[in-house]
Amino acid sequence: MNTHIVHSYDEELKYLANRLAAMGGHAERMVDQAVLALVNADPGLARKVIADDDFLDETQREIDDKAILVIGKRQPMASDLREVIGTIRIAADLERVGDLGKSIAKRVVAVTEGRQPLSLFRGLQALAELALTQLKEVLDVYASRSVDRLAFMRDRDDQIDAMYTSLFRELLTYMMEDPRNITPCTHLLFCAKNIERIGDHATNIAETIFYIVTGEQMPLERPKEDKSHKVVLSGGDADGSQ
I want to staple 201 with a disulfide (CB 3.0 to 4.6 A). Which of 59, 93, 123, 125 is the partner? Predict the structure, then answer.
Protein backbone atom coordinates (compact mmCIF):
# COMPACT_ATOMS: atom_id res chain seq x y z
CA MET A 1 0.00 0.00 0.00
CA ASN A 2 1.40 3.42 -0.97
CA THR A 3 2.20 6.19 1.54
CA HIS A 4 0.64 9.57 0.76
CA ILE A 5 1.42 13.16 1.66
CA VAL A 6 -2.10 13.51 3.07
CA HIS A 7 -2.10 11.39 6.24
CA SER A 8 -5.89 11.11 6.35
CA TYR A 9 -5.83 9.43 2.91
CA ASP A 10 -3.57 6.68 4.29
CA GLU A 11 -5.90 6.30 7.27
CA GLU A 12 -8.90 5.86 4.96
CA LEU A 13 -7.17 3.11 2.98
CA LYS A 14 -6.00 1.46 6.20
CA TYR A 15 -9.55 1.59 7.54
CA LEU A 16 -10.84 -0.28 4.46
CA ALA A 17 -8.11 -2.92 4.83
CA ASN A 18 -8.89 -3.40 8.52
CA ARG A 19 -12.62 -3.78 7.93
CA LEU A 20 -11.91 -6.31 5.19
CA ALA A 21 -9.65 -8.28 7.56
CA ALA A 22 -12.48 -8.31 10.11
CA MET A 23 -14.85 -9.65 7.45
CA GLY A 24 -12.38 -12.37 6.50
CA GLY A 25 -11.92 -13.64 10.05
CA HIS A 26 -15.66 -13.58 10.66
CA ALA A 27 -16.43 -15.48 7.44
CA GLU A 28 -13.86 -18.16 8.33
CA ARG A 29 -15.42 -18.66 11.78
CA MET A 30 -18.93 -18.85 10.34
CA VAL A 31 -18.05 -21.65 7.92
CA ASP A 32 -16.02 -23.54 10.52
CA GLN A 33 -18.86 -23.35 13.05
CA ALA A 34 -21.51 -24.26 10.46
CA VAL A 35 -19.66 -27.49 9.59
CA LEU A 36 -19.10 -28.19 13.29
CA ALA A 37 -22.84 -27.74 13.95
CA LEU A 38 -23.60 -30.13 11.09
CA VAL A 39 -21.19 -32.83 12.26
CA ASN A 40 -22.21 -32.56 15.94
CA ALA A 41 -25.95 -32.12 15.30
CA ASP A 42 -25.87 -28.82 17.20
CA PRO A 43 -28.89 -26.64 16.31
CA GLY A 44 -27.88 -24.00 18.87
CA LEU A 45 -24.55 -23.41 17.13
CA ALA A 46 -26.35 -23.42 13.77
CA ARG A 47 -28.64 -20.62 14.96
CA LYS A 48 -25.60 -18.62 16.08
CA VAL A 49 -24.04 -18.95 12.62
CA ILE A 50 -27.27 -17.78 10.97
CA ALA A 51 -27.42 -14.73 13.24
CA ASP A 52 -23.73 -13.95 12.71
CA ASP A 53 -24.31 -13.35 9.01
CA ASP A 54 -25.72 -9.91 9.82
CA PHE A 55 -22.21 -8.68 10.67
CA LEU A 56 -20.91 -9.54 7.19
CA ASP A 57 -23.86 -7.89 5.47
CA GLU A 58 -23.45 -4.70 7.51
CA THR A 59 -19.67 -4.59 7.08
CA GLN A 60 -19.90 -5.07 3.32
CA ARG A 61 -22.29 -2.11 3.09
CA GLU A 62 -19.94 -0.08 5.29
CA ILE A 63 -16.95 -0.91 3.06
CA ASP A 64 -18.90 -0.07 -0.10
CA ASP A 65 -20.03 3.29 1.30
CA LYS A 66 -16.54 4.18 2.52
CA ALA A 67 -14.90 3.13 -0.75
CA ILE A 68 -17.28 5.29 -2.77
CA LEU A 69 -16.52 8.26 -0.51
CA VAL A 70 -12.78 7.69 -0.97
CA ILE A 71 -13.17 7.56 -4.76
CA GLY A 72 -15.26 10.74 -4.77
CA LYS A 73 -13.00 12.69 -2.41
CA ARG A 74 -9.52 11.45 -3.37
CA GLN A 75 -10.00 10.52 -7.03
CA PRO A 76 -7.44 7.69 -6.71
CA MET A 77 -5.37 6.58 -9.67
CA ALA A 78 -3.28 3.53 -10.61
CA SER A 79 -2.49 1.30 -7.62
CA ASP A 80 -4.68 3.33 -5.26
CA LEU A 81 -7.69 2.89 -7.51
CA ARG A 82 -6.99 -0.85 -7.80
CA GLU A 83 -6.76 -0.99 -4.01
CA VAL A 84 -10.17 0.61 -3.48
CA ILE A 85 -11.96 -1.31 -6.24
CA GLY A 86 -10.28 -4.53 -5.10
CA THR A 87 -11.56 -3.96 -1.57
CA ILE A 88 -15.12 -3.75 -2.90
CA ARG A 89 -14.69 -6.97 -4.89
CA ILE A 90 -13.12 -8.92 -2.03
CA ALA A 91 -15.84 -7.75 0.38
CA ALA A 92 -18.47 -9.09 -2.03
CA ASP A 93 -16.72 -12.49 -2.15
CA LEU A 94 -16.48 -12.64 1.66
CA GLU A 95 -20.16 -11.75 2.01
CA ARG A 96 -20.98 -14.68 -0.27
CA VAL A 97 -18.76 -16.98 1.81
CA GLY A 98 -20.85 -15.98 4.81
CA ASP A 99 -24.06 -16.70 2.93
CA LEU A 100 -22.77 -20.16 2.03
CA GLY A 101 -21.90 -20.83 5.67
CA LYS A 102 -25.36 -19.69 6.73
CA SER A 103 -26.92 -22.01 4.15
CA ILE A 104 -25.03 -24.97 5.64
CA ALA A 105 -26.22 -24.00 9.13
CA LYS A 106 -29.84 -23.85 7.95
CA ARG A 107 -29.65 -27.51 6.87
CA VAL A 108 -28.40 -28.83 10.22
CA VAL A 109 -31.82 -29.90 11.54
CA ALA A 110 -32.89 -31.60 8.30
CA VAL A 111 -29.64 -33.58 8.10
CA THR A 112 -29.47 -34.62 11.74
CA GLU A 113 -33.05 -35.92 11.89
CA GLY A 114 -31.75 -39.02 10.10
CA ARG A 115 -28.12 -39.64 11.02
CA GLN A 116 -25.85 -40.58 8.15
CA PRO A 117 -22.65 -42.67 8.13
CA LEU A 118 -19.73 -40.96 9.83
CA SER A 119 -17.67 -41.32 6.67
CA LEU A 120 -19.88 -38.75 4.95
CA PHE A 121 -19.33 -36.24 7.73
CA ARG A 122 -15.60 -36.92 7.70
CA GLY A 123 -15.64 -36.22 3.97
CA LEU A 124 -17.44 -32.95 4.52
CA GLN A 125 -15.01 -31.98 7.27
CA ALA A 126 -12.01 -32.74 5.07
CA LEU A 127 -13.51 -30.70 2.23
CA ALA A 128 -14.24 -27.80 4.60
CA GLU A 129 -10.71 -27.89 6.04
CA LEU A 130 -9.24 -27.67 2.55
CA ALA A 131 -11.52 -24.79 1.52
CA LEU A 132 -10.94 -22.88 4.77
CA THR A 133 -7.16 -23.35 4.48
CA GLN A 134 -7.43 -21.89 1.00
CA LEU A 135 -9.41 -18.91 2.30
CA LYS A 136 -7.09 -18.29 5.27
CA GLU A 137 -3.94 -18.38 3.15
CA VAL A 138 -5.45 -16.01 0.61
CA LEU A 139 -6.37 -13.54 3.37
CA ASP A 140 -2.82 -13.83 4.70
CA VAL A 141 -1.55 -12.91 1.23
CA TYR A 142 -3.88 -9.88 1.23
CA ALA A 143 -2.25 -8.73 4.47
CA SER A 144 1.34 -9.41 3.36
CA ARG A 145 0.97 -8.65 -0.38
CA SER A 146 3.30 -11.59 -1.08
CA VAL A 147 1.68 -12.53 -4.37
CA ASP A 148 4.38 -15.09 -5.13
CA ARG A 149 2.58 -17.28 -2.57
CA LEU A 150 -0.51 -17.41 -4.79
CA ALA A 151 1.01 -20.21 -6.85
CA PHE A 152 -0.58 -22.76 -4.50
CA MET A 153 -4.09 -21.61 -5.43
CA ARG A 154 -4.70 -23.58 -8.58
CA ASP A 155 -3.39 -26.87 -7.22
CA ARG A 156 -5.56 -26.61 -4.13
CA ASP A 157 -8.59 -25.57 -6.17
CA ASP A 158 -8.10 -28.79 -8.17
CA GLN A 159 -7.93 -30.76 -4.91
CA ILE A 160 -11.15 -29.19 -3.63
CA ASP A 161 -12.97 -29.98 -6.88
CA ALA A 162 -11.72 -33.59 -6.88
CA MET A 163 -12.72 -34.12 -3.26
CA TYR A 164 -16.16 -32.64 -3.91
CA THR A 165 -16.70 -34.90 -6.93
CA SER A 166 -15.75 -37.96 -4.84
CA LEU A 167 -18.16 -36.94 -2.08
CA PHE A 168 -20.88 -36.31 -4.65
CA ARG A 169 -20.47 -39.87 -5.96
CA GLU A 170 -20.53 -41.31 -2.42
CA LEU A 171 -23.72 -39.44 -1.52
CA LEU A 172 -25.47 -40.62 -4.68
CA THR A 173 -24.50 -44.19 -3.81
CA TYR A 174 -26.10 -43.91 -0.37
CA MET A 175 -29.28 -42.57 -1.95
CA MET A 176 -29.46 -45.55 -4.30
CA GLU A 177 -28.89 -48.03 -1.48
CA ASP A 178 -31.81 -46.81 0.64
CA PRO A 179 -34.55 -44.31 -0.33
CA ARG A 180 -34.64 -43.14 3.30
CA ASN A 181 -31.25 -41.59 2.69
CA ILE A 182 -32.48 -39.36 -0.12
CA THR A 183 -33.64 -36.38 1.97
CA PRO A 184 -30.63 -36.06 4.31
CA CYS A 185 -28.14 -36.87 1.55
CA THR A 186 -29.69 -34.21 -0.70
CA HIS A 187 -29.12 -31.65 2.06
CA LEU A 188 -25.55 -32.90 2.44
CA LEU A 189 -25.04 -32.50 -1.31
CA PHE A 190 -26.04 -28.85 -1.03
CA CYS A 191 -23.68 -28.44 1.95
CA ALA A 192 -20.81 -30.00 0.01
CA LYS A 193 -21.49 -27.78 -3.00
CA ASN A 194 -21.51 -24.72 -0.74
CA ILE A 195 -18.09 -25.68 0.61
CA GLU A 196 -16.77 -26.21 -2.92
CA ARG A 197 -18.06 -22.75 -3.84
CA ILE A 198 -16.18 -21.25 -0.88
CA GLY A 199 -13.00 -22.51 -2.53
CA ASP A 200 -14.03 -20.74 -5.73
CA HIS A 201 -14.57 -17.47 -3.85
CA ALA A 202 -11.13 -17.84 -2.28
CA THR A 203 -9.69 -18.18 -5.77
CA ASN A 204 -11.61 -15.06 -6.87
CA ILE A 205 -10.04 -13.18 -3.96
CA ALA A 206 -6.58 -14.41 -4.96
CA GLU A 207 -7.08 -13.09 -8.49
CA THR A 208 -8.21 -9.72 -7.13
CA ILE A 209 -5.17 -9.49 -4.83
CA PHE A 210 -2.86 -10.32 -7.73
CA TYR A 211 -4.44 -7.50 -9.76
CA ILE A 212 -4.23 -5.02 -6.85
CA VAL A 213 -0.51 -5.66 -6.35
CA THR A 214 0.72 -6.15 -9.93
CA GLY A 215 -1.80 -4.31 -12.08
CA GLU A 216 -2.06 -7.46 -14.21
CA GLN A 217 -4.65 -10.23 -14.47
CA MET A 218 -3.70 -13.75 -13.47
CA PRO A 219 -3.39 -16.17 -16.43
CA LEU A 220 -6.63 -17.77 -17.59
CA GLU A 221 -5.73 -21.43 -17.03
CA ARG A 222 -7.59 -21.50 -13.71
CA PRO A 223 -9.71 -24.66 -13.26
CA LYS A 224 -13.29 -23.48 -13.04
CA GLU A 225 -15.43 -26.51 -12.31
CA ASP A 226 -15.81 -29.74 -10.43
CA LYS A 227 -16.52 -32.98 -12.31
CA SER A 228 -19.79 -33.91 -10.58
CA HIS A 229 -21.71 -33.31 -13.82
CA LYS A 230 -19.86 -36.31 -15.28
CA VAL A 231 -20.78 -38.70 -12.44
CA VAL A 232 -23.17 -41.43 -13.63
CA LEU A 233 -23.97 -44.37 -11.35
CA SER A 234 -25.29 -47.58 -12.82
CA GLY A 235 -27.45 -49.91 -10.80
CA GLY A 236 -24.42 -52.06 -10.05
CA ASP A 237 -22.40 -49.20 -8.53
CA ALA A 238 -24.59 -49.04 -5.46
CA ASP A 239 -23.95 -52.64 -4.36
CA GLY A 240 -20.35 -52.79 -5.55
CA SER A 241 -20.99 -55.09 -8.56
CA GLN A 242 -19.64 -54.36 -12.00
Answer: 93
Structural domain boundaries, residue 163 = 7-231
In a domain, 2, yes or no: no
Whether residue 67 lies inside any domain: the answer is yes
Number of structural domains in the chain: 1
pLDDT digits (tens, 9 = 90+) for 168-222: 999 999 899 988 888 888 999 999 999 999 999 999 999 999 999 999 988 766 5
| Distance, CA of 242 to CA of 236 (rounded, Å) | 6
Q: 234 φ, ψ to 5°?
A: -85, 170
Kindly state whether residue 148 falls inside one of the protein's structural domains.
yes
pLDDT on residue 17: 94
If you count them, how many residues does the chain have? 242
236 is a domain residue? no
Query: pLDDT of 207-221, one tens digit each?
Result: 999 999 999 988 766
Distance CA 61, CA 206 (A): 22
CA–CA gap between residue 101 and residue 234 (Å, rounded): 33
The whole-angstrom separation of Cα 18 and Cα 171 is: 40
CATH of residue 16's domain is 1.20.58.220
Q: Is the dihedral of CA 234, 186, 197, 30 positive or negative?
A: negative
